[in-house]
Amino acid sequence: MEPFRVHILGCGSALPTFHHYASSQVIEIREKLFMVDCGEGTQMQLRKSHLRFTKISAVFISHLHGDHCFGLMGLISTFGMLGRTATLHVYAPSEFEPILHQQIEFFCTGLEYAIEFHGIDTTQNKIVFEDRSLTVETIPLVHRISCCGYVFREKPLLRHIRRDMIDCYEIPISQINNIKLGADWITDDGEVIPNEKLTVPADKARSYAYCSDTRYQPELYKSLEDVDTLYHESTYASDNEKRARQYYHSTARQAAMVARDAHVNKLLLGHYSARYDDETVILKEAKEIFPNSYLTDEGKVFDV
Question: Which of 141, 229, 254, 266 could be cross-linked to 147 through a Cys-Cys bond (beta carbons 3.0 to 4.6 Å apart)?
């Protein structure tokens, strides 16, 4: 199968620390790169990751708190200095559009590439990006300001053709894609060879959900049913559940409850409060509810 990976560039919360950078990830899907959130320090972590700057085609911003978007203007400027020519697509809450254009006019005059802004209604669950192999949809979240998550879904994959059947029936290369799409094969003698005999089932389409800052939502799982890998903020452990509710964040236990109820395969924890020098307590708490939980950390890469 082609790569579908999540590269962690930053997994800390609002207060910078020596250990964690502000929120940012790169989603790698079939040789395409998409960035989700762009906090301070994103460029440095991007350098360390050895991902190619020029391959990032779009940036998805979950909300307009600084630890999720303060790095965007620096990234846009760097793209210009690197000679980017491809259009950069920015998906963010609609109210960000005039701010973004004002910053570009002030800091980045003379860019030789276009920036296309796509305003997001964070209250809606809808597809905001689509190409031949992928969709990205928004998931409304509950935070102190407008906020949404994003779900990256592969489109259904093609069936695998059996090489022995190709050789047996001397099927020309020009017909292989038709057969992958479901066509039968008719021999020179008029015999119909059913597609089920010529192919084996396609790999399961994969999906990744990114749920950034949000208060615990008991019904959130309904929008995440059977997602393969879920990133859900876990700013606090349960010792700070009151603080989590006050500031519209979630505990690790609550993140694990969402993962359990949504029947996901894997839970990634992040957006840690600076008050925790060791996130082991966060991981332990999540694993008690959802055993297949993992701590994110800068530089880690997770397969979906």
Answer: 141
* 267 bridge partner residues: 230, 293
Could you confirm whether 184 is annotated as catalytic? Answer: no
Angle at 23 between CA 19 and CA 27, to 5 degrees: 115
- Judge contact between 295 and 302, C-beta under 8 A: no
Q: List the structure tokens of 192.
A: 């119909």
Please give the Cα distance from 41 to 60 (Å, whole number).
17
Q: pTM score, two decimals?
A: 0.91
Question: pLDDT tens digits for 271-285?
Answer: 999 999 999 999 999
* Sign of the CA dihedral with 164 first, then 165, 166, and 169 last: positive
DSSP SS3 for 72? helix
Show the 3-state SS of 104-130. HHHHCCCCCCCEEEEEECCCCCCEEEE
Choose among 282, 153, 300: nearest CA to 229: 153
Give the count of beta carbons closer than 10 Å to the beta carbon of residue 48: 11
**Residues of the chain scoring pLDDT < 70:** none
Contact 91, 58 (CB under 8 A): yes
Q: Decide if 13 contacts 235 (C-beta within 8 A).
A: yes
Query: Which of 67, 131, 184, 228 is the catalytic position?
Result: 67
Sheet holding 229-233, edge to edge: 127-130, 134-140, 148-154, 207-211, 229-233, 266-270, 293-295
E strands in the chain: 4-10, 24-29, 32-38, 56-60, 88-93, 115-120, 127-130, 134-140, 148-154, 160-161, 185-186, 192-193, 199-200, 207-211, 229-233, 266-270, 293-295, 301-303
How far from the centroid of its chain's Cα atoms is residue 189's Cα?
Answer: 50
Q: Encode pLDDT of 122-143 as tens digits.
A: 999 999 999 999 999 999 999 9
